[in-house]
Amino acid sequence: MASYDNIFSINSDAEFEREALALFRYQAEHCAPYAEYVRLLGIEPSRVTRIEDIPMLPIEIFKSHKVYCGKGEPEMVFTSSATTGMVQSRHYVEEVALYERAFTEAFRLFYGDEKECSIYALLPSYLEREGSSLVYMAEKLIASCGGGGFYLHDYEKLLRDMSRDDNPKILLGVTYALLDLAENFAPHLENTVIMETGGMKGKRKELPKSELHKILCAAFGVERIHSEYGMAELMSQAYSFGDGIFRTPKWMRILVRDVNNPFARLGAGRRGGLDIIDLANRSSCAFIATQDMGIRYDDGSFRIEGRISQSDIRGCNLLVQ
Fold first, then answer.
1. Running along the chain, 321 residues long, what does each successive block of 10 average in pLDDT?
2. What's 11-71+251-312's CATH class?
3. Residues of the chain with CATH 3.40.50.980
4. Which residues are CB-neighbours of 94 under 8 A, at least 6 positions away?
């Protein structure tokens, strides 16, 4: 396996910018959909000298094109969640070991060594399909830690197993499943971090985060609900400790764009579309314009504030025609 120590040893903004610009120039030449996008924008990669000026590939391109610049056949293809009739995104991963290192180092950065806790995964909508990067991550972390496991719909067994476990615990659940558990059992969980991810997946009406977390806190007897932010198109994850503010690992950055002009950057505290630089996306594209709305703060943390509706998008998407 190639060495990626330069990614995971980043300790300054200058180091991040150097690595990001080098990766941009490589992917602007070798990742065919991204190269075409950069060409259509009339951008000369060698003239881009700031990360704020790197063009971000619209995330929809992962649905319509093979976004890949690996040197050989990919070891894994992760796919996004999709309701009936929707096209799934496909993320081609050259080396699964890089993904494993990225999610393990990010988890340890925010929660410590996984071997010192138990992880219980309540991810029914992910387990019921193939290609979930979240299931892959949870499976590997569970295999390394002191206990836990996957639970589909057997809430009683989940609660029974957790009650017998004296380790610090993390209950990682898709949002609608955590609500089901809360409404049907309202179990007060001791020595447990509740971590929600993934939303309602069409199973329930979407709720404001503040309302959702209030319901879950009351049911589970905890002071706050943690959150994980990731997606099939990314190799890395951001985490929130319950204040609605997400923090990224050092090889990941959030920028905010004007929804009406995707090439205009917004400063800290202003609401717009979220752009993500994920340097662990070595074999696909590390520069992604998401469909999430949010706010970035001075320290690099960010808040999610919903999705961009199609009626709000007036930007340039040259490859989706």
1. 78 96 97 98 97 97 97 95 77 97 97 96 84 94 92 92 96 93 93 87 73 93 95 97 94 96 94 98 97 96 87 45 41
2. mainly beta
3. 98-240
4. 68, 70, 71, 72, 74, 75, 282, 283
